Amino acid sequence: MIPAGQRKIILEGPHSLHRIFFSVSVIVDQTGWYDSRMSFGDPQFFSSYALNGARKYFEAEGVDIFQGDVWLYNASDKSLSYSATEILH
Question: pTM for the full model?
Answer without folding.
Answer: 0.90
